[in-house]
Structures are given as structure tokens and as C-alpha cells.
Amino acid sequence: MVGGGGVGGGLLENANPLIYERSGERPVTAGEEDEQVPDSIDAREIFDLIRSINDPEHPLTLEELNVVEQVRVQVSDPESTVAVAFTPTIPHCSMATLIGLSIKVKLLRSLPQRFKMDVHITPGTHASEHAVNKQLADKERVAAALENTHLLEVVNQCLSARS
Amino acid sequence: MAAAAALEAVAPTGALWGLVQDFVMGQQEGPADQVAADVKSGSYTVLQVVEALGSSLENPEPRTRARGIQLLSQVLLQCHSLLLEKEVIHLILFYENRLKDHHLVIPSVLQGLRALSLCVALPPGLAVSVLKAIFQEVHVQSLPQVDRHTVYSIITNFMRTREEELKGLGADFTFGFIQMMDGEKDPRNLLVAFRIVHDLISRDYSLGPFVEELFEVTSCYFPIDFTPPPNDPHGIQREDLILSLRAVLASTPRFAEFLLPLLIEKVDSEILSAKLDSLQTLNACCAVYGQKELKDFLPSLWASVRREVFQTASERVEADGLAALHSLTACLSRSVLRADAEDLLDSFLSNILQDCRHHLCEPDMKLVWPSAKLLQAAAGASARACDHITSNVLPLLLEQFHKHSQSNQRRTILEMILGFLKLHQKWSYEDKDERPLNVFKDQLCSLVFMALTDPNTQLQLVGIRTLVVLGAQPDLLSSEDLELAVGHLYRLSFLEEDSQSCRAAALEASGALATLYPVAFSSHLVPKLAEELGRGELDLARGDESTKCSRHLHCLQALSAVSTHPSIVKETLPLLLQHLCQMNKEKGHSVLRKVLLEDEVLAAMVSVIGTATTHLSPDLAAQSVAHIVPLFLDGNVSFLPENSFPCRFQPFQDGSSGQRRLVALLMAFVCSLPRNVEIPQLNQLMRELVELSCCPSCPFSSTAAAKCFAGLLNKLPAGQQLDEFLQLAVDKVEAGLSPGPCRSQAFTLLLWVTKALVLRYHPLSSCLTEQLMGLLGDPELGPAAADGFSLLMSDCTDVLTRAGHAEVRIMFRQRFFTDNVPALVQGFHAASQDVKPNYLKGLSHVLNRLPKPVLLPELPTLLSLLLEALSCSDCVVQLSTLSCLQPLLLEAPQVMSLHVDTLVTKFLNLSSSPSMAVRIAALQCMHALTRLPTPVLLPYKPQVIRALAKPLDDKKRLVRKEAVSARGEWFLLGSPGS
Predict the structure, then answer these.
(1) Residue numbers in A near B316 (CB within 8 A)
(2) Selection from B832, B801, B780 nearest residue B614 by Cα
(3) Could you identify which of B92, B143, B583, B846 might form a hypothetical disulfide with B147, taking C-beta atoms 3.0 to 4.6 angstroms apart as the criterion?
(4) In terms of CA atoms, which chain A residue is nearest residue B965?
């Protein structure tokens, strides 16, 4: 699995990216406060899980960089499926695999085991789209990546609250 | 006779000789303290000790010599204050001489010199002589850590007491010290050595030609890289070393030429902590540097700071970078220049502008905010910098606002403008014409008004905030501007449901601006609102339409929001009262009276009357109390000017329930009076209050009476009268608590009287508290008694307040805790199963209100109970226990880690409770658990992560949310990068 690198000093690949507005906290509805009513897992809930993931090289979230959007989240609670498409900021972004891996790990840690998840690059937005998607879909490779201390470190940083 | 005296003299020295032998030859440690004690008590002199040591000090075996000197040194350490000057001189000579001795002897010699360095009787010249001897004879860095520390202590002692003398050594002293500390590695010693260097510099010792050497010998530790070993008994933290080294490096401009290049290099480091330390050190340096020191390094410093702020992914680096830029600019602004020197501030600021300006024109891009923040950090440093930057940036931003048409771009631009405007508030300009904002006023106003009419709520919000900041600039806005602004605020005050936040912001802005411009608001807003109110009355009369109704409500809210200035209140209050009368006419006569007697309305009046009363002058207070008490007790209405009261006013007798409710107003008044105001007819008043407090018809008035009684009781001086009133209350409570209709009223009286006494540490309070505790086991009143503990521990707002002159002892909570918690715990163990939750609830109320530092030491004894409470089946107890444990997990992780096993099990159990609130609280505690030391948690990590998978599939979203964040944190435990 590729990825990592370029996190410390040195020049950023895209030093001045476009930034997007953050959506507010999801308002709590009366239904959500009612003990009896079940709330199904919906696209917004999935989006809330991944929108605050930190970008590996900017002090910005994936939402602010428009890497993830709610419209690119497909979820079916009854069928236990989730599909997330993410959009790298530039077509040659070397961080794409790392970002995809972070999203994948976040979902693995946050969703019930019954869910089958698919994380892939928004079609037509990255030079090596196919290769990255293949890596992200390969369970063994994802598992192996998480055995790699350096990669795990970067992923954990992306998933930590900013200090 | 003579022989006897001689014997007496010999006997003690004989004993001394024995002790010395035991220490030197027998290798026992005890005799040293014994000898020291004997010297202190005057049994022997130091000279006798030396004599007794005699041969061991000259023994050919170095170990024996060392042991002998060690004994002498230990005695001196305890007895140095008894030494005479003559003895000191001899001892110093002896010790200096011994410095040449065998290395085994040196540690003891240094101990002795340390003792002598503490000696007040040390004659002039000897400190220098000791230091010279040490510099010459001892190679400090080859000594063990403890002995190096001793040497530093000797120097510290001399620097404290012999400053002038040491300065006589000139730069030799500095040089000697540099050589001594060169190569020091131990953090304990470094802390002392840094302190010495700091004193050398700040006390102005001569550094001579050794400035660079002194810098080298300290800066080689920068940036500090030290991780305290686990279980370090010395407790030295990395931060301690960082701060003490920073104090040295940033203590003098003379280091600047060496330090600044080092800082520039280390800011570029890959290591986050090195970056932060460098930026913070730079920040500290700016406090003592001037233009001269910074001159050559400004371009590089700016480049480094800019790069960090532009590129970083860490908010701390950004914050520290901005802080450093702020200090740099402040430093350049502050420096006094020679007439012919160039002012570096201007060129520095021009550089910043050049690198940042163009980013401000791209409001969608990432660098827009870092650039704005850099400019604002510099502009915030001085009035001059602020002028320079804003005069350059404001025209640009104003232009950009018009160039960009999208609302969100405009919002970013306006938000930047707002930031610059706020900076202007920091500086006050004496001369009105000099105010730099005057030039831009018209453009700013029109821009704000555009924002206020934009459909985008976010842009409107920034517009409102900007308007308030513009309004806060003295004499900036003209009356025309204000009229327009008020018009906008009027419109925004009636925005519909979907822009609640905007309406709220507009109301808040109206309140803030109305205090500054009361005339504008009373002439342009109040009449409009009055008109609207009139229309609303007609609409309401025609029938209830919800939109009209909400408009009506908004109008009233707007009126209340602008009532922040006395002159406006004078206009709005009659309007509101007139409006009430109008409603009254339409809805039948009873409405007004009913409205004014509602709980919330009376509570609002109580707060107004209470506040007003606390500020009454003594005369006016005495006058008022002489009218008001007879009014309530005797229905004496003669002092009311328009006395058209239709019936008799007798709230305490057979008056209507409405009249009785007004006792709350009496409470507000008499309970807020200063303690020295005498209350007429007090005896009668107290009796009436006690009667009313147990009257079962209306809980509002009986509670008011109980509170009023308690409020008065709290302020009465100790004495017979107080005791009588107390007896009265106790009897009433006793009678009321027996089975009957007014048990709950009697309980309320008991509760308030207890509170009044607890606050003033009255001896009877313990007895009443016991009674209250007894009620925890009462099947009917138990739950109320448990909640009563919350009232006892909290601050009231209407009676028994410090502001209302009540006697409130500062530590009452702690005292209550100490006095009563053991009994509560005992009560819990003794109670039957069905009332146990009451005890736990009472206890958790007490614990929740207690300052954490007081609670922490008591935790070990209480924790077992709290843990037991987690198994209690009552949801309320579970919830309050969880909310009590959660902050403890955060603040006392060490204590809590002892119970990690129980905590994990119980929290996980509760995370599947049928109550959603309990599940949420339990998961929050699971999250808080991650604050415990990681090694304690790691054994549980796999189990917890498995268990937390279940609540991830909870049917409630709010529960899942907590499960996600707790599980996420557990994953990070002990994992790289966290």
C-alpha cells in the first residue's frame, strides 16, 4: 500500500486549496429524544462520522476541503450497506490512498459489524483512481496497512481531535 | 572540687569520643544526628568535635578520613548558625585544603563547604576564596550527580548572600562557572544550573568576553528533549526544563546574535515540540529585544513564521506563530530610535503586507484565513502597526467585497473586515480627526447595510456583529447612519422561524447599541414598536392567527431587548403596562390581575425588588421598611399615593389566595435589607410567616413564607430572640411532620431553616440536618429530602444571597460535606433496600456541588459507595452517579485507576440500560475512562472495543454518537500517532 510521506516539513503539494463551509451540528429532533422511536442510520449520520476527519497535511477537515460530501454517501440501514465516494483535491494527490484508508478505518471503528462498506474515489477525479480503489477494497491489504506503524500513526492522527 | 569539675568536663567529651568512634570506625549513621543535637544543645562545641575527630581526620586511610570529615560536615550542616567567625575561618582553611585530598574524601568536603556557605558569620573574602579553590581543585563534571548538585548549591548560596563579593571576581566567576557546568546531563542539576545562569545575567554579573561561551554552554540543550522516566520520584517535567532554559536564553539582548539564527533553524525542524519551543522562545525574547537585535534577522524570522502559519496542520503551531509575530511587531513598535535610524517597523509591515495581501483577494482558498490572521496578529501589536495595516488592507477588502458577488465569499471578506475593526477598539485616539476609521466610515456602513439585506443568514449575522463593532467606536456613526441601522434592526427583529439565530443576534445588537445611543433608539425604534404593538392588539382582538401572534411576541421581545438604558425604559415600561391594560379590557377584568400574579411574573418582580433593595441607602431602607411591614401585617395602605385599593389588604389573615402570593414580594424586600436595618414588628412578622409556611392551600405562598422566615433568621444576631424563633420553627416542623395534610409544607420549612443555619454555621444546623437525613428513609418525603440536599448545597438567587447581605460562610459546602457525609454513608448501609436510592441521591447532590480539590482526597472512602450506586436499579441514581464519576475520571485519573476493573464492567453494563439517558451517560464515562493512564487501560482494550461494538448499533442515534466517540478513543489508546 502506498501513501504516507510528505507529512512533516517540505513543500505541500497543494499549498492553497479551495475551502468549503462546514455544516453545523445536526439539530437534535424530538424523535431522537424519544426513547421509543428507533432512529435509522442515514446518510447524514455517516457523513457526520467522516466529515471531521483531518486532512493529512492541512489543518482542515475533509469536509472543508470538499473531499467528502453528504451527497456522495449512500446508505441502507435495512440492507446494512454503506458506500462513500471521496474526491481528492487534485488529480495527482499522493494522499488519496491515505485519505481513503482513514475513511475506511473510521467507518470500521464506528459502524456496526453487520455493515458492508465500500470506500472509493469519485469517478474521474484522480489519475490512479482504479489502483487506489482496488487497494481500498482489498481487505487483506487494508489489514496489512494497519500493521504498518507509520501508516497507522498517520491514520490515527487523521482520526484524532486536533491538538 | 577541682577534680570533680575536671571529671564533669571529661565525661561529655568521653561520650563524644564514643559517638565519633561509632560513626567513623563502627560505620553507624545514628551518632551524627546525636552529635549534632548535642552541639545544638550546647553540650559540646564544634571545636570539641574537631578535637574528638582528631586522628581520624589525619588517618592515612582515605576512607577513614572521608568518614571523619563526613561527620564534621553533617554536624556543620545542622549547626552552621552557631559558628563564630574565628571558627569559620579555621574550618574554611581546613576544608579548602582538603579539596586537594583523595577523591573519596571530596563529597564530604563539599558537604562541609555547603554548610559553611550557609553560615552568616562567614567573613568577607572567604566566599571568593572557596570558589577559587573549587574552580581550581575540583573537576565538577567527573563527580557523581549528588556532589555536582552540592557544588551548585554552594554557588547558589553565595550568590544569594555575597553578591557584591562575587562580583569582585569579575568575569572569572562567570568563566569558572561555565567550565563547571559544561557537559552537565542530569535534569535536576540543570534546573539549578539554569537558575544560576539566569541570575548571573539578570543580576548583572560581569560576563566579560564570555557571552558566547555562556550562550553555548546553555543553548546546547535547546530544544529540550527529555522524557521523565516512568515513576520518576523527582517529578521533574519536560516543561520545567523548557521554561527554565527559556528564561536563560531570553534573558538578555546580548544573546540575540547567537540565539536568533538558532531559533530560525529550529523552527524549521521536523519535530513539533521543537517548532513550538522555538516560536515560544522567540516570543519571550521580544520582551527584552529592540530593533537593533532584530534588524539583521527580520526577513528570515518573517519567512519562518509565515511558512509555519501557512503550512502547518497544527493549531498550536499556528497560534504560537501568530503570537511570535505579534511580539515581533510589538517589539519593533516599542523601540526608541535614534533620529537618524531607519524605522524597521514600516519595512517589516510592508513585507508582511506584500506576502499576504493577494491571498485576501481569494476568499475561497485556504490561505485567506492564515493571511488575515497574520495581518491581524501584527496589527494587534500597536496603534502604529494597526494604522499601517488597516489603512492598507481595508480599502482592498472593501473593494474585494464588491468584486465578489457570492454571499459566502462576501461573508469571508466581511468577517476579515470585522477582525480588523475589532483591533481598532484596542487603541484610543485622543484626537477625533486622527481616527483612521473615519475615512472609511461611509463605505463600511453601506457594506454592512448590504450584508444586513442579503438573503444569506450567515452574511447577515456577520453584518450584525460588524454593526455592533462600528457602533462601539466613539463618534463614528452619524445620526443618519444610526437611523438606518435602527431601521435594519427593526426589520431583523421580525424575521421568521427559519432565521432564529439572526433575530436573536439582532435583538442582542439592539440591546448593546441602545445603551450607547439611547436617543436614536427611543426616537426611531420605540415609536415603531409602539405602533406595531397597537396593530397587534387589534389583530389579536380579531382572532388568533399564529403568524400575527408570533409577530406580536417578537414585538414584545424587541421592546424588552432595547430596554437597556434608563431613558428608554422610561418609554417602554408605560407602553408595556398600557398594553397589559388593553389586553385586560379585551379579555375581561381578571386577566391583568391574574397575569401579574403568575409564578414567573412574581419571580421576575422578586428579582427586581431584591436587587433594588440591596442598593437602598440606609435612610431610605429604614423608611421603606417602616411602611412595608405594616402594610403586610396590618393592611396599612395609607402611604400608597393613589390609594384606590378596593378591599382590605390582609395577606396573612383571611385575605384571598392572590394576596397571599404577594408575600413573595415582601420576602424579596425584607430579605435583601442590610443586616443593620431594624425590622419593625419582627416578632409578629415571624409568627405570621411560620403560620403561612405550613398552610396547605397554596404551595407558592407557603414556600415564599418559609424562605422569607429563613432569610430573616439567617441575618439575626445570636441571642434569645433568635433562639425563640428557632424554637418556634422546630415546634411547627415537629407538629407538621406528624401524619397529616401539611407534611410537605413542614418539610419545606425545615429545609429552608436548615439552609439558613448551615450557611452561618449555627450549632443547631447539625441537628436539623440530622432530621432531614432521617427523612431520607421516609417513604413519602424521602425523594423530596434527597433533592433537598441539592438545595442545601447550591446558591440561591432570591434569598440567602451574599449580595442580599445574608451571612454565607465561604466554606459551608466543605463543612457540610465533612460533617454529614459519614452519616449519609452510614444511613445508606443501614437503610432498607427501597429507600437506599434516596441516600445515594442525597450523597451525589452533595458530591456534585463540592469543589473538586476538596472531593479528591475523600474519594477513596466514597468511591466504593459510588461504585455500589452504579448497581442500584434506580435510573435517577445511576444517572447522577455517572454524572458524578465522569468529572472525577477526568480530574483524578490516578485514584480512579485503582478501580478500573469495576468501572469498566459497570459502565459497560449500564451502556445497555433500558434508559437512553443512562446509556448515554455510561458511554460518556467509557470515553472519560480513556483519560486514565494508558498502561492501566491497555489490558482492557480488546474487551472494551468488542463490547462497544454493540451500542454502535443502538436504536437511538444519540447513543450511537457517544458509542462512536468512546470507541474511537479506545482504539487510539497506546496506538502510534495518538
Answers:
(1) 163
(2) B801
(3) B143
(4) A110
